[in-house]
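Weekly sync, protein design subgroup
Attendees: M.S., D.O., the rotation student, P.L. (late)

Item 1: inverse folding check
M.S. brought a backbone from last month's batch and wanted to see whether the design step gives back something sensible before we order anything. D.O. pointed out we never logged the input encoding, so this time it goes straight into the notes. C-alpha cells as presented (164 positions):
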C-alpha cells in the first residue's frame, strides 16, 4: 500500500514532468515558427535576386542587339565612304571585338559570287555580332545590286539571338 507521503511525492514528480513537457512543447512550437519565418524570408530574398538577375540579362540582350546594329551601320558607312570598297576590303572580318560601352561588336562580310562576268553586281552578306556580358546577338543582312553600276540595297535581314 501506498502512503500519503509517497502519493504526494509521486504527484509532485508528475506535476514537474507535466510542466517540463509543456515547456518543451512550447519551445518546439517557437523553434518551428522561427524556422518557418526564416525560410519565408530567405525565399523572398532569393526570389528578388532571381528577378534582378533576369532583368539584368534582358537588358544585356537588348544592349547586345544595339551593338550588332552598330556593327552593321559601321560597315555600311565604310561602303558609303569608299567608292572602291570592293578592292579596298575583301571578304572576311572587317571589325573584330571592337569595344563599345559594356561590350564589343564584330562585323563579318562575305561577298557572294553569283557567277556573272561583273563582280560589282555580286551580293554582299553582312553579319553583325554584338556581345554584352553573357548575351550575344547576331544580325544578318544581304545587300544586292540594282544595276551594273554596283549600287547596293538591303534586300532582307534577319536577327538571331543567343543569350547565355
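Designed sequence read out in the meeting:
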Amino acid at each position: 500500500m501506498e502512503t500519503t507521503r509517497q502519493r504526494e511525492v509521486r504527484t509532485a514528480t508528475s506535476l514537474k514532468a507535466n510542466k517540463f513537457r509543456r515547456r518543451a512543447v512550447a519551445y518546439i512550437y517557437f523553434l518551428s515558427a522561427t524556422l518557418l519565418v526564416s525560410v519565408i524570408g530567405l525565399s523572398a530574398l532569393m526570389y528578388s535576386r532571381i528577378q534582378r538577375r533576369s532583368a539584368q540579362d534582358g537588358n544585356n540582350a537588348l544592349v547586345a542587339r544595339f551593338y550588332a546594329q552598330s556593327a552593321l551601320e559601321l560597315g555600311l558607312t565604310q561602303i558609303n565612304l569608299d567608292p572602291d570598297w570592293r578592292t579596298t576590303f575583301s571578304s572576311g572580318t572587317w571589325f573584330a571585338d571592337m569595344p563599345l560601352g559594356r561590350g564589343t561588336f564584330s562585323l563579318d562580310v562575305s561577298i557572294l559570287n553569283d557567277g556573272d562576268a561583273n563582280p560589282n553586281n555580286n551580293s554582299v552578306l553582312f553579319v553583325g555580332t554584338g556581345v554584352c556580358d553573357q548575351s550575344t546577338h547576331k544580325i544578318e543582312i544581304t545587300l544586292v545590286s540594282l544595276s551594273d553600276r554596283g549600287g547596293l540595297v538591303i534586300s532582307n535581314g534577319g536577327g538571331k539571338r543567343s543569350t547565355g
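Discussion: The beta strands are 92-100, 103-111, 124-132, 135-145, 152-163. The two ends are 83 Å apart (CA to CA).
Action: P.L. to compare against the previous round before Friday.
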